[in-house]
Amino acid sequence: MTMPPVKYQRGDMVMGRWPGSSLYYEVKVLAFDSKSQLYTVIYKDGTELELKEQDIKSTAGFQPRSRSRSRSPGRRRSRSRSPARTTRRSSSRTAAAVAAAAITDSAVSSRRDTRLKDVEVMLSPVQQTKEAENNSNNRHEKKEEKQKEENNTANKVNETTEAEPEKNQGRYNLRRRKDDGDAKPAETRPEQLEEKEAKRVGALASTLSTPLDFGGKIGAYFWLLFLPAWVFFLVLQVNREDPSLTNFPPPLPPLEAFWDAQALGFVILWILFQALLYVTPMYSVLSLYLSLNTCLPPGFFAIVVSAITVAAAVHQGVDLTYIHSHFLQLATASLLISILLSVYLYIRSRYAAPEQLALGGNSGNVVYDFFKGHELNPRIKNFDLKFFCEMRPGLIGWCLINFAMALAEMKQHGLDAPSNSMILVNLFQLLYVVDGLWNEEAILTTMDLMHDGFGFMLAFGDLVWVPFTYTMQAYYLVSHPNPLSLPALAAIVILKLVGFYIFRKSNSEKNAFRRNPADPRLSHLKTIPTATGKSLLVSGWWGVVRHPNYLGDLLMALAWSLPCGFSHLLPWYYMIYFIILLVHRDSRDMSDCRRKYGSAWDEYCRTVRYRIIPRVY
Ligand SMILES: NC(=O)C1=CN([C@@H]2O[C@H](COP(=O)(O)OP(=O)(O)OC[C@H]3O[C@@H](n4cnc5c(N)ncnc54)[C@H](OP(=O)(O)O)[C@@H]3O)[C@@H](O)[C@H]2O)C=CC1
Ligand SMILES: CC(C)=CCC[C@@H](C)[C@H]1CC=C2C3=C(CC[C@@]21C)[C@@]1(C)CC[C@H](O)C(C)(C)[C@@H]1CC3
């Protein structure tokens, strides 16, 4: 069978249709994929998209309407989308840049507008409303200033003053926007995101194809089988007297050893208990009771109540070492739940409205889409499944398991107290989790919450991977004690604290900036404006290195493995996995940001040249 000739060739300058509209912009053809019948085209600021042949016209004979010629799509968009209104759209570069960047940005940012406003403000303490108003006023003044200096912003490093309207000062909200009160500054009111625009953007998200991650469709099959197998391997191997990798493979227990109905019951009970805490507004009652001015972060409340409940249960004679002795069965039960949840998520994503979808996870391949997840923030009424799974049962379960391992160590070795190494691992990881829960609204600026769909990868990651592999060090120490000298202990504590400092400071800086770029505490920072209206930090922590938060996290990971010593590789598994995960996330983020921010991202990369590890002179 002969293939029809390709109409446009590589290098051709043509007019590409703006997805979801009838406007055409000049693009250059980069490639043609005969399988998908899609042309890869590049816009003037370097953003790439895939277009169908019918969305491309040759420039010859193309009759641009005078209006559409003089106006960039970004400016058109700015009428309907509040973020654009406050941005420096009229800068000289935006006409070209927005033609490109706005496509991906509108899909991402507008959806984020719809979603993140969904997930903000519910827990606003009263005084935050005032703060928000002040900020709103602040923003209006700044906006006027901005309009005056409109034309000199292109690709220039500026002092931080830009206001980003999608931010506000409240705590996060997992309630639907229609329920929100009037407390929000006018600029951030949800009504401003016109329904039509949201639909258009959603439709775009459901049709746009993004490059496939994780080895594409074949990779998805691999990961689906490999990840659960790896969890079982670790669980079986670490419990052996000699867990060295040379002693591979671990003897496979009979199939029925993997299963215990009671273990399933406990896992379900734990998840339901966490769900109950998640929906209970007790934290505000507790705040009132403790005469606190602000609400306690609900995640923090959840871990405190969980700890009290567990302590009470232990006091009543509940033997937590059950967790150590039934680790395998508990892992199987959690895997089963994560699979059922992923099937549910996949099915509902097929019926979800386009504006609820994430970019990616719409490859059309059932296995890939099941793995990657397509719906961005699936909810049952106000219950946000992704947020809940990421921040509660697995994360708090991690601490519960560590604690159980400490008890198992005491029991196994007849100790009155856990070993130094066990205490360090427990305290370090507890600090990490408590910090995550205390700052849980910061998760709203992370990749998972913002960009990734909720599918098997995250459901399994949250419910199985985190509780059953992040606890490897504590599990290992139960049967492989590693006494620590005082200097070693001190050095490890210092390492942990340094890592934690970098991690917390850099995450808080970015989070504060994304929530309110006009925050006076950030006024010393330099930024690069982007065509999307959001800016990029180019000084402070994010000016030292790209992803300074990953650096802090890696130092902490090192401090978690060191107490286990160097006899075996297994307790170093987390460190090795984490390097791979973060390097991969960094490159995923690089290409996402490149797509989103176009040449502004390139400029950021030119200014901040190093990734994760800064150059030491
Ligand atoms: N323990 C664990 O298993 C894991 C822990 N983590 C930790 O979770 C935290 C969140 O990680 P993750 O979501 O991967 O990534 P980040 O929190 O670093 O988020 C990346 C996003 O930050 C924004 N950004 C990047 N550079 C800049 C800049 N210069 N100025 C302003 N904004 C910028 C971009 O989003 P935009 O511009 O759209 O706002 C980018 O997509 C990290 O601390 C990480 O270490 C992560 C994974 C696993
Ligand atoms: C191999 C596999 C299945 C990977 C899935 C990755 C997930 C396990 C991680 C993706 C991002 C995560 C984050 C945390 C836990 C691990 C996962 C879910 C996190 C909640 C840990 C606590 C931190 O303080 C954090 C809130 C910053 C962090 C957010 C990202």
UniProtKB/TrEMBL annotation:
Name the keywords, alphabetized.
Answer: Cholesterol biosynthesis, Cholesterol metabolism, Cytoplasm, DNA-binding, Endoplasmic reticulum, Lipid biosynthesis, Lipid metabolism, Membrane, Nucleus, Oxidoreductase, Phosphoprotein, Receptor, Steroid biosynthesis, Steroid metabolism, Sterol biosynthesis, Sterol metabolism, Transmembrane, Transmembrane helix
Tell me its EC number(s), please. Answer: 1.3.1.70
The UniProt entry, under Pfam families, shows: ERG4_ERG24, LBR_tudor
The annotated regions of Basic and acidic residues compositional bias extend over 130-151, 177-199
Q: Which domain of life is it from?
A: Eukaryota
SMART domains in the record: TUDOR (SM00333)
GO MF terms held by the record? Delta14-sterol reductase activity; DNA binding
Matches recorded under InterPro entries: ERG24_DHCR-like (IPR001171), Lamin-B_rcpt_of_tudor (IPR019023), Sterol_reductase_CS (IPR018083), Tudor (IPR002999)
List where the protein spans the membrane.
218-238, 258-279, 286-314, 326-347, 454-478, 484-503, 524-545, 557-583
User: What's the protein called, per UniProt?
Assistant: Delta(14)-sterol reductase LBR
Name the species this protein comes from.
Anabas testudineus
Q: What is the lineage of its organism?
A: Eukaryota, Metazoa, Chordata, Craniata, Vertebrata
Q: Which gene encodes it?
A: LBR
